[in-house]
Amino acid sequence: MVLARRAQVFGSFLWRAVKDPGSKQLRDVNKHFCQCYFTVPATSELPKKLKKSERKPLVRSINELKREARQKKKDRQKAHEIILQPPENGMLVKQLIPVAHQVYAARLELLSIVSRLVKHIAIYTCSLCGEAHVGHPPHKIKSCNVKGSLSNKQHSWVRGGVEHVLPTVESFHLYDRIGRAVSHNEMLLVDQIPAIVELCIQAGVDIPEYPTRRRAFPVYCVAGRIIDFEKRFPKDISLGKDIDASGFWHEKKRVDGGVNPMELKYNDIQDFGAALAVQGMKAWEKMCKGASKLMEKYAVQTCGYCPEVQVGPKGHRARNCQAYKHQMRDGQHAWQEATISDLVPPVYVYHIQDPQSSEALVNGLKRYYGMLPAAVELFAQAGAPVGKKYASVMREDVVVPKLDEENWVV
């Protein structure tokens, strides 16, 4: 009863503080009484962790998608030409070609910098659930809740690498982006490359190992049918002659594996680690911002229940989805419009406010810890300043109490 009465008095005190912060009664209160911690959730910008039965949120509302589908159906029933704009007509968007080259260059620079920093900053990953952690020692938060995990839900940490900081999402490479979709029988005959690289290729970046068709004349849409005059009346030099559009079985240099790290001007990571991290942070922001700009024109599809991504106006037809109720779809994916998080997954890890500290993050104080994308956390621990974009998720304004002080936290 005494504790309940004290809680009621303190609750009324806080209500008066919010309602009338200039009250004389509040000004006369001892200043030390107001030095307490508040656990107001400040990580509202973190994406919600979906259950296996939940579908990814749609970029556009379902009513808007239905309205657009009905309008397209009416247009197909009319025997008239539908004017297509780039890139729907097979042509490139000229003003986005430099952006595609910038995104591709920023990705190469980002991979080079991360591969150098992970040699000096430890990366851990859970061998059971796949959660990542940047910095040493790994945290002790009991959040491993998958099949086969330990009874105390602690993680089984092993050393990780670049792929755990920058995971690669692959997509089928399309020789003709407005052609037919990849069928199930062609699933093993078509190359799969990083989706962001495929986006850059379709937007104007030419890679000899992965050729794509560049049209000189646009295609036309009449009564819902695509008419390609270049195909009906080919030039003297065929655009598709002697081109292997599916080089999966040949020994070709992969986009990631064959790229040599850039020779940067920083030779000593201990002296120039902060400058290297700042350069990596700029490359990360340039890649994400540029990819988002490309996705406004070049469509990218993702499955609503699994991480599968296909760059192009429509998804592939490979029946390899193993997500929620895939039997009802015959293994096909539930395609919807993708976001930048589907193309470049931000692996969120716990933010360490003091990288020089040797104390691990504990389970009892997990509600006070902020989070950051793994790449951003890696650069932050190397000395790069984190911008205001991540201020609400990293929670720098929250003071982490000691374990013996946690009982006094409000």
UniProtKB/TrEMBL annotation:
<dbReference type="Pfam" id="PF05634">
    <property type="entry name" value="APO_RNA-bind"/>
</dbReference>
<feature type="domain" description="APO">
    <location>
        <begin position="302"/>
        <end position="388"/>
    </location>
</feature>
<feature type="domain" description="APO">
    <location>
        <begin position="125"/>
        <end position="209"/>
    </location>
</feature>
<dbReference type="GO" id="GO:0003723">
    <property type="term" value="F:RNA binding"/>
</dbReference>
<protein>
    <recommendedName>
        <fullName>APO domain-containing protein</fullName>
    </recommendedName>
</protein>
<dbReference type="InterPro" id="IPR023342">
    <property type="entry name" value="APO_dom"/>
</dbReference>
